[in-house]
């Protein structure tokens, strides 16, 4: 667990500044694509600061691993399977957050993918389309729905 007054290279400064001594006890945080990578780091950090975390990921298995790790460390988290590039699923996620928790204080949108030009020939199923869908449609859809409250 990261001490609450120490920043790592991946620690977003906005998270450090949220509460007294870095604590955000009882705040509801939604972290999109929190099953692995930067999203997982954000979810774990928020939970270590006292937030209740909704771990959203397209893979329920990956999301559950993150939520389990948070709960094992004494935090509160639930996992939700959602593809934020699909507008109806992003809308459902926003309604779910408000319906279950009564509000949403923090949104971290880690949705996105990379597009490697040198691997283009090896990739079989439309990598550019996937890249654009997740980085443009997924980001705007999920952020707008969650910020507006569904």
Strand arrangement within the widest β-sheet reads 3-2-1-4
Separation, N- and C-terminal Cα atoms: 33 Å
Question: How many H/I helical runs?
Answer: 5
User: Which architecture would the CATH scheme give at its second level?
Assistant: 3-Layer(aba) Sandwich
Low-confidence stretches: 1-7, 139-150
Number of domains: 1
| Arithmetic mean pLDDT | 75
Protein name: Short-chain dehydrogenase
Pfam family, one: adh_short
Which key features would you list for this structure?
150 residues, alpha/beta, 44% helix, disordered N terminus, SDR_fam, NAD(P)-bd_dom_sf, Short-chain dehydrogenase
TL;DR?
This protein is α/β, with parallel strands linked by helices. 44% of the residues lie in helices and 14% in strands. It has a single domain (18-148), classed as Rossmann fold.
Task: Describe the protein's architecture and organization.
The protein is an alpha/beta fold and 150 residues long. The protein has a single domain (18-148), classed as Rossmann fold (3-Layer(aba) Sandwich). It is 44% helix and 14% strand. The protein has helices at 13-16, 37-48, 60-72, 87-101, 127-148; strands at 28-32, 52-57, 76-81, 106-109. A four-stranded parallel sheet has the order 3-2-1-4, sandwiched between helices. The termini are far apart. The model is unreliable at 1-7 and 139-150 (pLDDT under 50).
